[in-house]
C-alpha cells in the first residue's frame, strides 16, 4: 500500500499558467495567480528598481507592478493595451506581473521538468526552476519567490 502511495506522490500533476514575453514562453504555478487583467498605466515610484513599472490601484489597494521582461533581462517594449497583468501572491504579498500575453493552462508532472541547462547564466538560473517541452514548445518554469528579493520587497 505504501508503494502505491509513494508512486502516486512522485507523479503528481500540477497546473501551470503559461505566458509570453517577446518570443519566449514561461509558466508559473496557477495557484499563485489570483487574477489576470488588462494593462493599466502605472504610476512610477521614485528611485524604484528598473523592473518596477510603478503602482496601480486595484480595488482600493496599491499594487506594485513588476515588468517581468525587464526583470529577466529581455528586450521589452512599452506596454500596450494588448499586455496583461497577472496578479499573483509572492511570499505573502500581492504583486502585478506585466507580461505580453497569457497563452495557456498546462497540466504537468515533475518528471516532465528538466533542470535548467548549465550554459544558462546565473541570472537566468535565479528565476528559472526548470525547462520542459510540450507540443513542440520550450517553456521555462519560473520560481516566483525569487522575482522580488527580500530586501527589495520591503522597499516596494
Overall mean pLDDT stands at: 85
Number of helices, counting only DSSP H or I runs of 4 residues or more: 4
Number of strands: 10
Helix/strand class: alpha+beta
Describe the structure.
With 156 residues, this protein is of the alpha+beta class. It has helices at 2-10, 68-71, 122-127, 150-155; strands at 13-21, 24-29, 33-38, 52-58, 61-67, 84-90, 93-99, 101-109, 128-134, 137-142. The strands form 2 sheets. Strands 8-1-2-10-9 form a 5-stranded mixed β-sheet. It has a 5-stranded mixed β-sheet with strand order 3-6-7-5-4. A hairpin with a 2-residue loop joins strand 6 and strand 7 (93-99). The longest helix is centred in the first third of the chain and has 9 residues, at 2-10. The radius of gyration is 17 Å and the shape is globular.
Salient structural properties:
156 residues; alpha+beta; five-stranded mixed sheet; 4 helices; globular; disordered N terminus; disordered C terminus
Structure summarized in a few sentences:
The protein has 156 residues and is α+β, with helices and mostly antiparallel strands. It has helices at 2-10, 68-71, 122-127, 150-155, and strands spanning 13-21, 24-29, 33-38, 52-58, 61-67, 84-90, 93-99, 101-109, 128-134, 137-142.
Amino acid at each position: 500500500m505504501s508503494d502505491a502511495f509513494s508512486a502516486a506522490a512522485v507523479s503528481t500533476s500540477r497546473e501551470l499558467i503559461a505566458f509570453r514575453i517577446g518570443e519566449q514562453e514561461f509558466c508559473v504555478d496557477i495557484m499563485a495567480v489570483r487574477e489576470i487583467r488588462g494593462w493599466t498605466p502605472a504610476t512610477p515610484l521614485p528611485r524604484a528598481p528598473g523592473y518596477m513599472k510603478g503602482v496601480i490601484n486595484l480595488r482600493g489597494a496599491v499594487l506594485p507592478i513588476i515588468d517581468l521582461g525587464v526583470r529577466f533581462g529581455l528586450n521589452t517594449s512599452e506596454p500596450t493595451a494588448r499586455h496583461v497583468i497577472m496578479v499573483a501572491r509572492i511570499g505573502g504579498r500581492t504583486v502585478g506581473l506585466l507580461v505580453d500575453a497569457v497563452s495557456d493552462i498546462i497540466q504537468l508532472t515533475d518528471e516532465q521538468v528538466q533542470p535548467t541547462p548549465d550554459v544558462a547564466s546565473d541570472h537566468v538560473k535565479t528565476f528559472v526552476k526548470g525547462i520542459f517541452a510540450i507540443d513542440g514548445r520550450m517553456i521555462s518554469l519560473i520560481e516566483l519567490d525569487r522575482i522580488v528579493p527580500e530586501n527589495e520587497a520591503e522597499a516596494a
